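Students often ask what a 'structure token' actually looks like in practice. Rather than answer in the abstract, let us consider EAL domain-containing protein, a protein of 934 residues. Its sequence is given first.
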Amino acid sequence: MTVRFSALAALCAAAALLLAAVPALALEQVTLQLKHVHQFQFAGYYAAQELGYYRDAGLDVRILEGTDGNAPERDVIAGKAEYGTGSSSLLLARMAGKPVVVLGVIFQHSPYALAMRQSGAEPDIRRLIGKRAMIGSLTDDLGNADELLAYLTKEGVPSTSFQRVEHSFNPDDLISGKVDAMAIYTTNEPDTFDRLGFPYDIYSPRAVGIDFYGDNLFTSEQELANHPARVSAFRAASMRGWQWAMSHQEEAADMILSKYSRRSDRQHLLYEARQMVPLVQPVLVEIGYMNPDRWQHIADVYAGLGMMQRQARFDGFMYRVDTSRTSLAWLYRLLVGVVLLLVLGAAIHFSLLARERKRALETIRHGEQRFRTMFEASPLGIALIDSITYEYRDINARYQEILGRSQHELRTLRWLEVGHPDDVVQIKAQMALLTTQQISSFKALSRLFRPDGTVTWIDVSVNAIEPEAGSHPHHLCMIEDVTAKKQSETLIWQQANFDTLTQLPNRRMFLDRLAHDMLKSQRDRSRIAVLFIDLDHFKEVNDTLGHQQGDVLLIDAARRISACVRKSDTVARLGGDEFTVILTELEAADQVERIAQAILDRLRQPFDLGPEQAFVSASIGITLYPDDALDIDDLLKHADQAMYAAKGAGRNRYSYFTPTLQVAALNRMRLTSDLRGALKSQQFALYFQPIVHLGSGAIHKAEALIRWNHPQRGLVSPLEFIPLAEASGLIVDIGEWVFHESARWVQRWRQQVHSEFQVSLNQSPLEFQREGSSYQGWLAHLQSLALPGQSLVVEITEGLLLDASSAVSNRLLQLRDAGIQVALDDFGTGYSSLSYLKKFDIDYLKIDRSFTRNLAPDSSDMALSEAIIVMAHKLGLKVIAEGVETPEQRDLLAAAGCDYGQGYLFAKPMPADQFDAFLRDNAMPRAASIVKAN
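Now compare that with the structural description of the same chain:
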């Protein structure tokens, strides 16, 4: 009888609840206070607002952004807002006496974690000790910081072991190194890090079993007591909005962009949505569901931190969805008429049972429909699979899309049949543990083959499902296509380790492989050879044919070098025209020589560059491990020294490292160091060699030549120290000194010897090409000495004219405008073109001494010299022959029409004061010669 009256009471109570749930005509105004700014983290509430779910519940809801994570708790307790979103720290607030009530859990797992810059080693949270970290606010309550501090304590990193600083919520602080770690949401900051290419490690409290709830919808006891129907309606509408938002992520993202905030772009909002799926678990758990045991777990963690008492009770903290407040006291007054109502009660009882059964079936049907909708609309590929036969039992559309196969095709296949063999082995091993109930789930990164043969990378998550009695066990397989991410990672790795032009390993990969090969050599007691290869004359190819053709040559050179070595050897490009080779497991020394010679032979063959052919050679330096050095730096240094020895010996050859080369390198280093103080210590001297007019014998020109009087070494040849000065940049200061000394002496000789006396001074290409208005200072100095520009001649090499840059043209124009003449030194030995002589203002050609040395009637050198002289005169240029040492050479050149001669036949280079005396001694014959010539 009591059961029957209870059924009647239930019917009455249900009717009362239905009446209470009918919305009033006027919408009730309530406020929802968020804990952060608008983002996908609160998408369900926006959906409930924009789709009219709140309106249908009779509510006019105002949704406010949060200035900090504790604003919702403050405003709800103060009555400024009726509802708020909060973290698991709401439990601490409740235990502190604050009347908060959690209505539902949105995030089944907290997204809160700690991010640190990758160190290159295995991730280790203990790196935080002694560092700076942004974890929560330092002025307000802990908020989410409590779960991170609990995690760090459990990992042996208490809060006293590092410095906490105020949280700026700005990822740039971590990227720039302002802090060493920062608390993040795994749904948010990683997207920023990935876009900027910032390498990071994430540390989650879940790694040590601390599994807090994330965002929670809550209210106050006052709101629940005064407006129970409104609380129920608000909660139901909110959960309905969340179900829609998680099933319609792209539409929800567009809704946020158009109605709420554009702080984040659409790509970031969808990133948030994808990251929220495993945290919210909309397919597996009804949104809003909360487990008392999970809250007890959170309470135990807080108790372990000393933040609340152990075994504390938190009655009333969790909202009961089906709570009924209908009083049953009036039912007991009906006991007087119990006999009269017995039949009626029985009828009502059976009627209610039927209606309850119908309602239960309807609920089940709606639940199944909702699950099916979520299953089909999930952004993850989901399949239900027989764990014994591996047959597919259910497959959603996204799973089919990722595999590139229809449901019919998949029904004819078995799970893992299209997987990569290497990955299938690993997954089957995990499945063995799953089917024997040693584990309940696992994750893996796997590859599968699509019908077109392409490989797709997927993140796989497998969870066991409780089997029905007598049936096979099943598991749920969820997959996500991460091919684009994997390709991006591969591209980044490729760009970091391989040369983009030749696709050879770059310096970083070369050093890594060399270190690995050296360790293997130590174990095997074998030898390694390192070859340092530098292409000879590559710069001329770049200058004459252009950098694009130079790149084509480098690609072909890389291919040729690689073809000369074994697959187990390494060929790398360090940069420019420099290549290296690592030869491992050497059995005999002649093996290295055969390979080096093969490389020289292949590189000496012509390179086809479109309509042109280019010819280069190579200089190779060879060093052996462990014979020559025991560490990488010394090996590379010795190989480089050997390469320069090969260049110095004439190029197109290989040279082994020897201790002598090391001594020579040390000498060069010490000489460079001494060179830095030579100018200040006045160790340089200027020598002059006369340039004689061949027709008259007159001397009114001279070439200035620098000499270095080293205090210990004595006179150092320019051939030895000029290259060092160019490499160190000291050539610019030395060139300035030469100019000022030359100007001083030419002023004296124009006054005392000849009014049109000229001094030629050599310009290094580095001096000539340097930035800035290099000759302005020269011109000002010449004006201060009342000297015209014609008093100086600047000698440059042919290689400078091959540089098509505007800087070279501008320098030559500046010299011409100032009246300073230009001589082209060593003419005929480089890659000159007649077009350069026509294009630029050149005044003198200097025939190289290699032509003069072998002059004889009817010789090829004589023919070339005559051709140069005729060509120069046709172009209006004067010709100076260098290296004149015999009267026969002088006479042949004079007969050919050469204008000037320079060499030991006339005088050797001599110090300035001796040359001054030489000019005075030769002044009268010179003057007589001039009169005679005129």
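One point worth highlighting: The first helix runs from residue 2 to 21. Ask yourself how you might have guessed this from the sequence alone, and why that guess would often be unreliable.
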